[in-house]
Design brief:
- By secondary structure, the protein is mainly alpha-helical.
- Helix content is 54%, strand content 0%.
- The chain has six helices and no strands.
- It is elongated and about 65 Å long.
- 23% of the residues are buried.
Length: 192
Amino acid sequence: MLTSAHLADAQRIGDVGQGWQVALTTLNSERVAIGSGAPREGAMIGKVAAAWRTQPELRNPAMHDELMRLWVEAEVTRLAGERLRQQSAAGQPGPEGSAMKLAFARLAQATSRFELDLHGEAGLRYDDWTLLPTVAVDFTRRGPGYRYLRAKGNSIEGGTSEILRNVIAERVLGLPPEHRVDKDIAWKDLVR
């Protein structure tokens, strides 16, 4: 905890004592950005659909049904994300971004799992073993193995899926919060 930190007024975002509100606004914006994804053909579902079109030997009827279900879900998520981005541009982003990010994380994992199933053994090959940190996450220029492993991070970054479910329940749906005995105790006074 930074109790003796001093900051010039010009370097502060928001009013004194409003740091948590600024952090929430930033998190909500991040969740909208993560959850909105990319245009349909530029996203993971586009990579899977391209493989389906160009490699007919991979196809089977059961996988066709699953691909169509994932494509429709990706399109609905994309359109909902576009609407949410437009609403956010007109005002302050709200907790609805949590639902967008949660939907995207689940969809990214389901799509990448389907892609591995589609490619079979070849999908397990990993395309870069340098173990160097990346500057930006790029789902489209890497192979199915990378996309599968990277999609796991979507349920952690920007708030875990479990936390987002609580945000949606309490702030979007208006459900009563979970019982917490430490709700009125300052963080510094919590027993650790």
